[in-house]
Amino acid sequence: MKLVVSVYELKQLNKWISYIDGAILHIRGFSLIAGDMDIDQAIDVCLKNHISPILAIDKMLYPQDCEQIKECMKRYAGKKVFFYTTDVATICMAEETGNLNKLIFDPQTMIANELDYKEYAEYGMHSLAMSLEIPVQDVIASTKEIDMALFYQVFGYRLMFYSRRKLLSLYSIEKGLESPNGKSFLKEETREAYYPVIENENGTMIYRGYIVSLLEWLDKINRLEYAYMESLYIEDSVFFECLKLYSEYMHKGLSKETAISRIMALNLPIEDGFGKEDSIYQKELF
Fold this sequence. Notes:
30% of the residues lie in helices and 25% in strands. By secondary structure, the protein is of the alpha/beta class.
């Protein structure tokens, strides 16, 4: 099992490098949320430290984006660089450029059961992700009989909604308000949680109002090749402490009970997401 994290700045990579097995590198022009770093420099840092560099190509694609993405895949075809993608068109691009065996494919909510997982696994990519809106027990049941490496988010805020439209700016214009800058949150009238929201050139992204942490489940999820931690909206120093705990648990023998106790002591808004219930059918609502 490899511990991978989202990296948006080179200083994050340099700080976390001793605790991770892979870095999801977010780059302008390809990534939903891009950082400011030299991508070739970041790849070199990863490879020199025997860390897997994973380029994030996870924004919503238009036909005019395809040639640029294929050129990117061709450029790194000869290196040990992986590609994390979310658009089904990237499967064809990866196959065409000889990178299918380096593709980590995450179609968000599209893979929700064993039949879906098996169908996509037959394409022959390197790794697959399952929907984050089904119970972890369903993930376990769907993947245990299929020979495919699993990519799965085990920590951080999870993406809930994505639109190409700049919804915050449109709302601000409609209400005569200044457009928000920097970190922003949404709050619904009938809910207590504050939902992290980001608007950029790719549109609007809304995240769930809590941090998911799946330390309890790590040793139960079959074929979990990539345990992914998301750093967005978590203070760097706090995320670093969480990263060290996950690393110690996964690679240095820290007990599950101790790891869970220490991460809960940080007083983060942690929940298990849909770990024990389905996001669609919640019987208490009927």
